[in-house]
Amino acid sequence: MLELLIVAGSLGLIGLIGLLTVMVTPPMMVEYGLWTLAAGLVIGIPTGWWYHVVLYRTLAGRMPMPSQWWRKPVALHPLLTADEYPRIRRWFVAGALGFVLCVSGGLAAMAGLSILRWYP
To answer: DSSP 3-state assignment of 31?
Structure first.
């Protein structure tokens, strides 16, 4: 049964991609990509900043923070208690969502611009 669902889902995804390539024109790709990139920046910058603030406030009270801790803040996650982790994770996931939107929007915009530039 699981195999049937995987095959049906794959075929549906292939059909959807084929339909989208006909419906979405390169200028639409650029526009949607830029809007997605902007949404990612609006979501990701404030939530990523607040994640770092909350992580610092949580850990700085009980230990000295390593120098340049903000470069690899995920390495500090094992130091969080079970009560602190969900509060930090909420902001971590929101910042990561903003990052994913930025990357996917930027790639879509670049793909649309490339098609406009080199496709006759």
So the answer is: helix
Domain chopping of the chain, boundaries: 26-118
Q: For residues 45-61, b (16+ Cβ closer than 10 Å) or e, as one string?
A: eebbeebbebbeebbee
Angle at the Cα of 37 from the Cα atoms of 42 and 43, rounded to 5 degrees: 20
Dist. CA 14–CA 11, nearest whole Å: 5
Can you tell me the distance from the alpha carbon of 87 to that of 16, in angstroms, rounded to the nearest whole number? 38
- Tokens 């609006």 locate to 42
pTM of the predicted model, to two decimals? 0.76
Q: Are 70 and 52 in contact (CB under 8 A)?
A: yes
Lowest mean pLDDT among 13-27, 43-57, 86-100, 106-120: 13-27
